[in-house]
Amino acid sequence: MPETEVFQTNVTNRRTAAALLRCLQAQFPTWHITFDLDDCDRVLRVASLDGPLDAPAVATVLQARGYRCVPLPD
Predict the structure, then answer these.
(1) Where are the domains of the chain?
(2) Of 52, 42, 34, which is closest to residue 10 (Cα–Cα)?
(3) H/E stretch holding 22
(4) CATH number, span 3-71
């Protein structure tokens, strides 16, 4: 069963989301990563099929680029 984490972000632009996805996928190539910018929380969903998911590392990638990235409670 995949481990999944959902984050609230402040990413509003699809071009920005695509660039961030490229950065995340370069760092975590086996993970399934998507943005839902239509959601009120501008959701980033990350799923790992091959082991533990490092939520702080995901947040760091966005935060280093000036974006908010906070895990949503289960």
Answers:
(1) 3-71
(2) 42
(3) helix 14-27
(4) 3.30.70.100
Cα–chain center distance at 72: 11
Q: Are 58 and 28 in contact (CB under 8 A)?
A: yes
Give residues with Cβ within 8 angstroms of 32, minimum separation 6.
Answer: 2, 45, 46, 47, 49
Structure token pair of residue 72: 């949503």
Q: Per residue of the chain (74 residues), what is the pLDDT tens digit?
A: 689 999 999 999 999 999 999 999 999 999 999 999 999 999 999 999 888 899 999 999 999 999 999 999 87
Residues near 52 by Cβ (< 8 Å), separated by ≥ 6? Answer: 3
Q: Compute the chain's Rg from CA coordinates.
A: 11
